[in-house]
Structure formats: C-alpha cells, structure tokens
Specification:
This protein is 31% helix and 22% strand. It is an alpha+beta fold and 302 residues long. The radius of gyration is 21 Å and the shape is globular.
Length: 302
C-alpha cells in the first residue's frame, strides 16, 4: 500500500511492507547508525516549526584528537558538556554523533540560549571536558545560526546516503567499542508539528513521485553561491534526475522519494490531484495514533 508522510518541512513516500520480519537489536544495545535512527532524526528535523523557535542559536562542530576508550567515556564527555551549557542558560539543543575517517567521534549540534553568548566560552567548555582526549582549539567550530532550516538540512545532509555514509557506517566505529549508545538526540522545548499521512492510490503515488522529482530537479538547477562564486551543482542535478531510475521493473514500482518540501506546497499539489480525480486518503498522525482529520475519529489498525 502506498504511504505518504507529510512533515512541516519535508515529505517521504513509499510502499509499506506487507510483512516486517527483520531481526531487531536488543533494546538499549545501539551499535552505530541504523536506517531507523536516520529516519527518526530526519523526521524530527523536518517537523520543527522554525517560526516558533525563540532565543539565540549557535551551530557546533566539536572534535577530539584522541579517541575515547569506549562509548561510555564519549557519552560522559558529551553529557558533561551539555551540563555546562545548562548552567549557562541553554534553552534547547539537538546533537548528532558521527565519526571521522580515522575512527574518532565528533559532535554536531545546534544549541539555543535566551541571550547571546560568547562563542569562545562554548569552545572553552568543550576543551575542558574533552581535555583527556587532547581536543585542540583549531578543531572546534561555533557559529551564529542565520538560517535554522538550512542548518537542519545540513545536519540531515547524509540522509540520502544515511547510515551507509562513511561518517555513519559501522566500519567507522572505533575499534574496541562494543556498542555506541545513542547517536543523536534533543532536549529542551522544541515546537513540533505532527505529520499528515496520506494513503494514495497507486495512480496517485506514481503521479506524485514524478511531480516531486520534477520539483527537485528545478531546485537542483538553482545556482548556489560558495565563496562569492555562483554555480549549478550538476552532480546533484544528475542524481535527482535518476532518483526513480531502476533497472528492475518490480523494484522501480516500489521506489519512494524523500525531499525537503514545505507542507503548504505538497498540500496544494495534493488538493490539485484530488481535483483531477486522484485518490489521496488523507490522515493525521499524532503521537503515532492515526486520526481522521475530518471527523476526529481514531483509526485503529492503520
């Protein structure tokens, strides 16, 4: 059955499996990034109501020279840093753990304070808690956030490659680490909008896939500016053009899409498709409970 989930800042669409019999890891034994972890992180970032965020935001990229002996040591370092941020008046934070090619973890994050802070103070707090692993000042980066949605996209930049990307792949996990523990998280008050779920017909699913691809191609063709030079990223254009391409006909019919698109835009497209006679089957998902948005009825078994 085709399923479309529409977030505030993105859309995912695919064919729901009829049977889910894959083996699950024991609860609490997290070993690196998994497809589910990547999807949950991406879903969170796409659900943020950016206009509801208050305070002053900073982006963080924090590194170590030496690798901690195990995941517990790494998490103690991260938690000690977060506790220091709390004492500074932190309002909210989102963080992600990834690994460098040499197998050493580093921390990406976005942190909010009620009032502007000294960026060097944030770096000094990290250098203090990460001193046992010889963290150097040149390896740290703290900046003011000028585009929150853009930073969310940056934090999810590996979503298309997901857990297979070198910074998230299991091969990059430090040797001797039996487990990694949580690889992303958030704390504080984040304004979140629940996703809307559609259950489109096959015809609507195939039509909407093509519309999303055409929109993504148009976005990819927009010039980007780097170091005062504008250019079109043709690698991105060619990748987007082939996002639905598959040599196997059966797999091609099942291939979904995942893009950063505004809810208003996709809703407008869905309304147009309904006017053209396509069946969309709109549902609202609140805390994993599916609700009929017209009647408020809880729909069991969906």
């Amino acid at each position: 059955m085709p399923v479309l989930k529409l977030y505030l800042n993105g859309v995912t669409m695919g064919i729901a499996p009829r049977k889910n019999d894959h083996e699950r890891a024991k609860r609490g034994e997290v070993v690196g990034w998994s497809p589910n972890a990547s999807r949950r992180n991406l879903a969170f970032l796409r659900s943020i109501r950016v206009d509801g965020l208050t305070g002053h935001a900073y982006t963080l990229t924090l590194t170590l020279r030496d690798c901690p002996p195990d995941a517990d040591a790494w998490h103690r370092c991260r938690r000690a840093f977060i506790e220091r941020l709390r004492r500074m008046g932190m309002v909210r934070m989102h963080w992600v753990t990834e690994w460098q090619t040499r197998g050493v973890p580093h921390l990406h994050g976005m942190v909010y304070f009620a009032e502007p802070q000294n960026r060097r103070t944030l770096i000094d707090h990290w250098l203090a808690v990460a001193a046992p692993y010889r963290a150097g000042i040149k390896g740290q980066d703290v900046k003011d956030v000028s585009n929150v949605l853009g930073w969310c996209k940056y934090l999810a930049k590996h979503a298309a490659r997901g857990y297979k990307h070198y910074q998230r792949a299991g091969a990059g996990i430090p040797k001797g680490w039996r487990k990694t523990g949580r690889v992303w998280g958030y704390l504080g008050d984040w304004p979140i909008d629940d996703p809307v779920r559609y259950e489109p017909s096959d015809a609507a699913f195939f039509r909407l896939r093509r519309i999303v691809r055409s929109w993504a191609v148009a976005q990819a063709r927009e010039p980007v500016t780097s170091r005062s030079v504008s250019f079109v990223d043709w690698r991105r254009v060619n990748w987007v053009k082939g996002m639905l391409r598959c040599a196997n006909e059966r797999d091609s019919r099942l291939r979904g899409v995942s893009e950063w698109m505004s809810r208003d835009l996709v809703d407008a497209i869905a309304d147009w498709m309904v006017s053209e006679g396509y069946e969309m089957g709109r549902r609202l998902v609140v805390d994993d409970v599916t609700i009929d948005p017209d009647t408020g009825e809880i729909l069991d078994g969906v």
